[in-house]
Write a structure and sequence with these properties.
214 residues; mainly alpha; two-stranded antiparallel ribbon; 8 helices; globular; disordered C terminus
């Protein structure tokens, strides 16, 4: 069982995170509307729901709150998470008892590649819908559109912008967090004396041990 008691944030940080998520969603919705002819994201389209990736403590705390708020799906999500985590835990590059990834980009990438066909446990395989959609990580929200962080341009999903020129993709790129509010909030969490680090969705949802402390 994974101890997720470290995935905790103060009520003030949680409120600020909610504002950040709302701002990111508004920015992305506006971009998707402007370029709707190139965006094919729909329920049941799940390339972004396959394979593990790193998420922050803010994402983890949000997922756990979502799990607590949706008891009708919690059991199924938990079963899928434990099945996924049982397969990945022996190769996890970090502290597996806590689900905290090591600060080793090469080891992380090797792990993500090795388990690149594992479905996200929040995904309902029968419907192709995310059971924790309103509480999903920021990475899930930004996937699909061309996203710019500083000088780095992340490509859109291969199913989107298929008829767009490179110039159109460049013009469509959006920075969802230009002031790096997420970075500020993560620094606040770290300064509060809590454990901090990155984790993965399956590790977080594999156990609710410590949820009462969130």
């Amino acid at each position: 069982m994974v101890d997720v008691s470290w995935c905790r944030v103060s009520s003030e940080v949680a409120a600020a995170d909610a504002r950040l998520v709302a701002a990111v969603e508004a920015t992305l919705a506006g971009a998707a509307e402007r370029w709707q002819q190139h965006v094919r994201c729909r329920v049941g389209c799940t390339p972004c729901c396959i394979g593990p990736f790193d998420i922050t403590v803010l994402d983890a705390a949000r997922l756990l709150r979502g799990l607590a708020e949706r008891p009708e799906v919690a059991a199924a999500v938990g079963r899928r998470a434990r099945q996924a985590w049982d397969g990945m835990a022996p190769a996890f590059p970090g502290e597996a008892t806590l689900g905290i990834l090591a600060d080793d980009d090469e080891a992380r990438q090797a792990f993500f590649t090795r388990f690149g066909d594992v479905l996200c446990p929040a995904l309902d395989p029968a419907t192709g819908a995310c059971n924790l959609y309103e509480h999903r990580p920021l990475s899930c929200r930004t996937f699909g559109l061309p996203v710019r962080y500083g000088d780095e341009l992340l490509a859109p999903c291969e199913r989107n912008y298929r008829a767009a020129s490179p110039a159109e993709i460049e013009a469509a790129a959006v920075n969802p967090d230009p002031a790096d509010e997420e970075g500020r909030l993560l620094a606040t969490v770290a300064a509060g004396g809590w454990l901090a680090g990155d984790t993965i969705v399956a590790a977080v949802l594999a156990s609710t041990h410590g949820l009462e402390n969130l």
